[in-house]
Amino acid sequence: MAIEELQRKAAHNQALFRDVNERIRQISDGGVPEGEPMGFICECADQECTQVIDLTLEEYEAARRVPTRFPIAVGHEVPDVERVVERNERYAIVEKFGEAGRMAAELDRESA
Q1: What average pLDDT score do residues 78-93 get?
Q2: Average pLDDT score over the chain
Q3: What is the pLDDT of residues 63-75, one digit of tens each?
Q4: For residue 83, what is the DSSP state?
Q5: What is the 3-state secondary structure (H, E, C) of 8-72?
């Protein structure tokens, strides 16, 4: 598969996971104590992934402020389409670049 096709598929996949996580955030809004981690779906490029990662609401919202960034499980990054910009023992934040970055930003605008 060509890199550009991989980038498009990855961006589309992660946008779908992001929509699910936005619903989780909305449902739990106000119901989770500040600073307390909660379960979000890994927003990696693997459409088969269902791993849950723990982030506080503040951590999730910080990642969401940049439309090309996605919280994922550690080790789930795809170096051909994204770079790790933050990592800890619970999760990593990746940033899409190239075609995947452009598509992620576009899909984020469409879902807003």
Answers
A1: 93
A2: 84
A3: 989 989 999 999 9
A4: E
A5: HHHHHHHHHHHHHHHHHHHHHCCCCCCCCCEEEECCCCCCCCCCEEEECHHHHHHHHCCCCEEEE
